[in-house]
Task: structure prediction
Amino acid sequence: MKTGIFGGAFNPVHNGHLHLVKNYVDLLGLDRVLLIPTSVPPHKTADGLIAGEHRINMLRLATEGDDRFEVSDIEFRRGGNSYTYDTLCALREMYPDDSFYLIVGSDQYLTFDKWYRAADIADMVSICAAAREKDKYEQMLEFKAKNDFLNSSVITQLKVVEVSSTAVRNAVKNGESIADMVPPAVEKYIRDNRLYV
Result:
């Protein structure tokens, strides 16, 4: 089975996340994608990070009815810092016959050499990265050429939906509409649970 892995804080999940991951399902012919919210992100401050339960619920709402997507709480069950390497080791034990594809955005890709056990991760999965703009695409190709362990990674140019979790949180805080930023069920969940206000 070809399994995509898409992790992140998802604070909250938004249309940009969904656009990226759905494009990769089609591009790579993936059988499924595991959406994995981080418990404690090791590379960024966790300020303003809402409870994992809410982030998991929003991911489930955002992908409801599409059986290609599964939301995994593996990093919450493990606890501690959410290192991708540790998660991949656990997933390989759970699904020994799967081929794994790690889906990342351009910013994550361009700092991949700083990730914990980056070369080991690259040995375990195909790394798939999408560029938003042409100059970013060329930057990513240069970065790949400089890092031998990334030579099997797949870099594509995608028309990216320009939205960020920060923009969603700020819009909610300012009483602005987020209807064009997140799926309707996620918007309702945020409003009903008074998140990010």
About this structure: Residues 15-28 form the longest helix (14 residues). Strands lie at 2-8, 32-37, 69-71, 99-105, 126-131, 154-157. The chain has a mean pLDDT of 93. The first strand starts at residue 2 and ends at 8.
